[in-house]
Amino acid sequence: MVALRCTWNGQRQGHLLWRAHWGGRLHRLPFDARRPPRENLVVPTRNGLCRQKYKPVDYKHLYELAAAEKMASAEIQLKLKKTKRVSKMNKEQLLLKQHQQVWWQEHKRLSESRRKAEAEIKTFLEEENHKHNFFVDMRDLEHHLSKEQDAFRRDTVAPIWQLREHLKSRLSEMLSGLKAKINPAEMLQQIQFVKQQQKAVLEFLTHESLALERELEDCKTNALAHCCEEISGVFLEVPSALQSLECPYPDLKTFLISEYRKLASSFWSKLQEIDQQLEVLHRNIDWKEEDQWIFQTVISQYPSDLSRRRTLYLDALQRHLPHKSRRDLVAHEKAWDRCRFARSRRRAMALGWAQAREAFLLRAVATAAEASAAQEAEVLLAHTRQKQQQLCAELKAKVRKYRAEKQLRCQEQEEKDLQRLEELRKLMAEQAIKDRERVKFRQALLEKRLLEKKELALQAARKEEEKEKCLEALRQQVAVVAKLDPARVVADTVASKARMGIGTNEEFDLQKPLFKLHTYSEEQIISDPRLRVELALREAGLHKTPYAREILPKIPPLKLPRRDMKSTAFQMQSTSVPGAAPGAPSGLCCEDLK
Question: In whole angstroms, what is the distance from residue 242 CA to residue 253 CA?
């Protein structure tokens, strides 16, 4: 029992050591240590004890396995560290490459902007040089600063380059194996002297730069304060265009000015509110001005459409501001976003005010124009009404006068009509007497004509009877006396014999025309000078011109026609013979062709 407990305790201690070394993680062990074969098991004595199989623990073998696993784990850790270091270096190089691209683009943009600004300033100074003395002073100051810059370059930059070239030549002599007398202490002394000189120059320049920056900041603060006061005064001031607005109604002009002031005060209160928000945001930012400037400059270098923009500019900020943590950068980024949003709101508000001011002025001008137009319309309407009243009075007077004149004319006309009626009655009575006499005369004349017609009809009847008698006598003289021939009725006719081929010639001329033609030959037609002239004009394309219509009727034919062949039915101005050209003479007839 004691032996079994000691064995179990030894196994437990070895397991605890192994677990303490590997941190409680289970590792693979060889097959012999993990599950021993059955034939190697030791069977204890059976002195009243229960059967229990065990194997003695080989601690030396376990220690060797643990040491081997430890070495393998150390190698894996080294490989992991190396892989992490390489990955970090690759990531760093990729970030630096992206930073380099962005910085190069920013450098190109700034160089181009600087070149354009310098060109514009130079052009402006050249154009305004002869107008004001201030620009002459500016040119003198530019010349003086250029001289100082050249002197500074000669005193500070030139010694550094000389020392650099000297050290490079000495180093090349040492590498080439030449025996040169080199004094390291003297060289170090020269380098140290140049460093001290450059340090003093840089300190002087830094001090001067800070002084200039303070002076500029003071000027900026005073200018901004004065500008804010002027802006507030100008903002709330009524524009001259509204004050000098020509409005016929003073109440309307006063109302427009009060509305403009209300609009300006509402926009000004909103701008003041945004400015207060900006002041609160600036007070809550505890960064230095230089750090803020670096932050804004670095972020502005990265365009908004760049991929992974935030990662890049945060990495750049951590490089430029190593004393700021990422948490501080993110917090300042949020505050800067709020400031930028407030500034954009202020710009939008200012733009909205400019648009609203312009729109209000346009509406005010339109309202004043409408008021002026309405007043002019009222004046014109009053003037028109006055003219209408005068015209109505004149028309009434004319109407009264016209009525009186018309009434007088009507009375005169009635009197004239009565006189004419009386004269007409007399004329009608005389005419009635004449008509009765005329009727009697016509009745006698009609009876005479009827008697003459009866006599003429009797004479015609007598002549017809005599003519019939003469014709009958003539018929008796020319009457045909034919013999009786019944066979002739049923005999063949000449046409039927010709159709049947009886009595016809066997040879038949196929080229013989069916009918005999009685017409004119081509030579006879072409011999007419009028046709020749018409053909020549047609070939020249002049047969439809006024000249052709004028000249063709004047050409005489080859042979003048007979007088009895002329007819007035064919004498027309613009007609032509069918088949002839327009403008051809219409007097071409058969006798002319002959």
Answer: 8
pLDDT digits (tens, 9 = 90+) for 417-437: 899 889 988 999 898 898 889
pLDDT at residue 452 tops 70: yes
Residue 252 has pLDDT above 80, yes or no: yes
Secondary structure string (H, E, C) spanning 1-30: CHHHHHHHHHHHHHHHHHHHHHCCCCCCCC
Q: How many domains does the chain have?
A: 3
Which residues lie across from 537 on neighbouring strands? none
Residue 48 backbone class (left: φ over 0; alpha: ψ -120 to 50; beta: rest) = left
CB distance 210 to 288 below 8 Å: no
DSSP 77: H
Q: Nearest-CA neighbor of 535 among 572, 592, 584, 577? A: 584
Is residue 317 within 8 A of residue 99, CB to CB? The reply is: no
**Cα 422 to Cα 370: distance, rounded to the nearest angstrom:** 73
Between residues 326 and 219, the one the model is more confident about: 326
Domain containing 46: what range? 2-97
pLDDT of residue 321: 86
Do the domain assignments include residue 40? yes
Cα–Cα distance, 51 to 44 (Å, whole number): 8
Instruction: Please say which residue of 346, 370, 397 terminates a domain.
Output: 397
13 located within any domain: yes
Nearest-angstrom CA–CA distance, 211 and 217: 10
Q: How many Å apart are CA 195 and CA 401, to the nearest integer? A: 124
DSSP state of 42: B
Work out the mean pLDDT of the chain and round it to a whole number. 77
The tokens describing 485, both together, are 């021939």
Evaluate whether 589 touches 539 at the Cβ level (below 8 Å): no
Domain end marker among 71, 97, 123: 97
42 bridge partner residues = 54
Task: Give the model confidence (pLDDT) of 366-391 as tens digits.
Answer: 888 888 888 888 888 998 999 999 99
Cα–Cα distance for residue pair 218/210, rounded to 1 Å = 12
**d(Cα 44, Cα 50) in Å, to the nearest integer?**
9
Q: What is the pLDDT of residues 42-77, one digit of tens each?
A: 444 444 444 455 577 788 888 999 999 999 999 999
pLDDT of residue 28: 42
Helices within 128-155 (DSSP H only) = 133-152
Residue 507 lies in a domain: no
Under the banding of pLDDT at 50, 70 and 90, the label for residue 451 is very high
DSSP state of 568: G
Q: CA-to-CA distance for 202 and 209, rounded, in angstroms?
A: 10
Cβ atoms < 10 Å from Cβ of 552: 21
